[in-house]
Amino acid sequence: MDEYTLRVVKIDKEAIFEFIYETFISQEQELLDLLSPVDVINDCAMDWEKG
Question: Which residue from 1, 18, 26, 35 could staple onto 5, CB 3.0 to 4.6 Å apart?
Fold first, then answer.
């Protein structure tokens, strides 16, 4: 792309939340600072009205 070209990508709210959730799941060992492999149970609730 040219230096002064801007690309706008529209992503719906559900896709953003799913991306955040999937990223958290894939990196939970590092994010939760777990030193050894343990089983982790996740329960995620999204506030769809407030985002």
Answer: 1
What sign for the dihedral angle of Cα 5, 7, 8, 13?
negative
pLDDT digits (tens, 9 = 90+) for 11-20: 988 898 889 8
Tokens standing for residue 3: 């230096």
Query: What pLDDT band is residue 49 in, cutting at 50, 70 and 90?
Result: confident
Placement of tokens 């089983």 in the chain: 39
CB-based contacts of 12-19 (< 8 A; 24+ apart in sequence): 13/48, 13/51, 17/46
